[in-house]
Amino acid sequence: MVGMRLVGIMSSPDCQAHTTKTSLYSPDSVDIIDHKKSRYPFCIVWTPIPLLTWLFPFIGHMGIATSEGIIRDFAGPYFVSENDMAFGKPTKYWKLDPDLASGGIQAWNSAIRDASEEYSHRMHNLFCDNCHSHVAMALNLMVYKGSSSWNMVKLCCLMLIFGKYVSIWGFLKTWMPFLVCVCVVIILWLAIPMA
């Protein structure tokens, strides 16, 4: 509905001069996010990593999307994928404001392109140089929120706080395996008599 209103406003010659990019790309306008097509413009996206997320549900795979919603993620050694995340479709996303990137939308896309180019020449390291580091580099290059100190720990914490689940299925895909593991441990602990 909102998207239809914006199109109507933009097509009117009298109102075109009054329309700004801020009205089109507001961080609160979720009408441009398309979960079915996995399009998340100006978002950081996250998906669980089998086994690892089952034990530590706050650890997962991260990517960043361009202004068109195309997801770029450091998927493995010397490889940055485009719109095909290494561990499946996103289950969480964190909408960012492109106006907070130094240089706006153009700088946003340029930083993602440059970070992806850099990481396409890097070896993947689970602990030191990974998908979170790729996203952090993009945010550092665009000087998002005036900061060039983004890192994987900061992003992990902020995604945990500000990330929104794409659906109830996204929530279950993230937390159900962990809860099953906890229940199995509790059952085994209660079932095995202490000597």
TrEMBL record:
<keyword id="KW-0472">Membrane</keyword>
<protein>
    <submittedName>
        <fullName>Transmembrane protein 222-like</fullName>
    </submittedName>
</protein>
<feature type="transmembrane region" description="Helical">
    <location>
        <begin position="175"/>
        <end position="192"/>
    </location>
</feature>
<dbReference type="InterPro" id="IPR008496">
    <property type="entry name" value="TMEM222/RTE1"/>
</dbReference>
<dbReference type="Pfam" id="PF05608">
    <property type="entry name" value="RTE1"/>
</dbReference>
<keyword id="KW-1133">Transmembrane helix</keyword>
<keyword id="KW-0812">Transmembrane</keyword>
